[in-house]
Amino acid sequence: MIAIPAWLADLGLRVNRRYYQQLLDSIYIKSTGVPSWFDHRIDLYYQWPHNLFWLERGFFARRHMFHDCRVLDLFCGDGFYSKHFYASIARSIDAVDKDPKAIAHASRIHADARITFSQRNAIAEGFPKGEYDVIAWFEAIEHLSETECTTLMGHIKSAVGATGILVGSTPLVGEEKKGKGNWEHQNEFSNPKELEGKLKKHFVDVCIEVTEYPELNSAPRSTAYFSARIPR
């Protein structure tokens, strides 16, 4: 086996980092047509190790999973978490997103025999299967209107089963910043109590954990991670 010289490996890393920096700038910062999903290779190859909060959702979901569990990855985006966190333990994963470009990317970049990626409007069409052990719903509840959220909660309650669990997350924003940040957000939360109240309308055993990054990219980031079950 031929060893790669250190200078060449370092050059490769720097070129790779530069590529994903340009990808971030061109698609998510400077473009007017910003997609609703994020390519997490940018986090991995460019923003690492200065930005680590995006890893939390993978670890949070994984600790609720068990060998051969059945997973639904709702609003899966680029499919990064299904591939790199869920596929090593789950028996099967249904990863759904309504954006055809997200599913095309996920199927190409993060394919795995245990993952079925499908373009699907989960609110209007429901879920691919009737029941799951774990439903992962990260960074998505804030995107839905009250009506959409209620409809989807109904689907989740039907599919999570008597012993299953819903896990997810949402960013927390200050009360004065509600509706003034991400143009896609319709249902933002300023504190954990608001989120807890929303979830308790549909679920029991609601648990919320909050992480704080006061100086992330010169702007604070607070994330609420939640888990919930249906009434027995």
Descriptors for this entry?
seven-stranded mixed beta sheet, alpha/beta, Rossmann fold, 21% strand, 37% helix, 232 residues
How much helical structure, as a percent, in the residues? 25-40%
User: How does CATH name the architecture?
Assistant: 3-Layer(aba) Sandwich
Fraction in beta strands: 15-25%
- The DSSP helix count reads 8
Apparent shape: globular
Using DSSP, what is the number of strands?
7
Alpha-carbon distance between the termini? 58 Å
The profile of the biggest β sheet is:
7 strands, mixed
Rg result: 18 Å
Topology of helices and strands:
Blueprint: H1 6-29, H2 41-47, H3 53-62, E1 70-74, H4 80-86, E2 92-97, H5 100-109, E3 115-119, H6 122-125, E4 134-138, H7 146-159, E5 165-172, H8 192-200, E6 204-213, E7 221-229
Parallel strand pairs: 1-2, 1-4, 2-3, 4-5
Antiparallel strand pairs: 5-7, 6-7
Helix pairs in contact: 1-2, 3-4
Description:
- The chain is an alpha/beta fold and 232 residues long.
- The chain has a single domain (51-229), classed as 3-Layer(aba) Sandwich (Rossmann fold), CATH 3.40.50.
- The chain has eight helices and seven strands; from the N terminus they run αααβαβαβαβαβαββ.
- A seven-stranded mixed β-sheet has the order 3-2-1-4-5-7-6, with helices on both faces.
- Helix 1 crosses helix 2 (41-47) and helix 3 (53-62) crosses helix 4.
- The longest helix is centred in the first third of the chain and has 24 residues, at 6-29.
- The protein is globular and about 55 Å long.
- The model has no long low-confidence stretch (mean pLDDT 89).
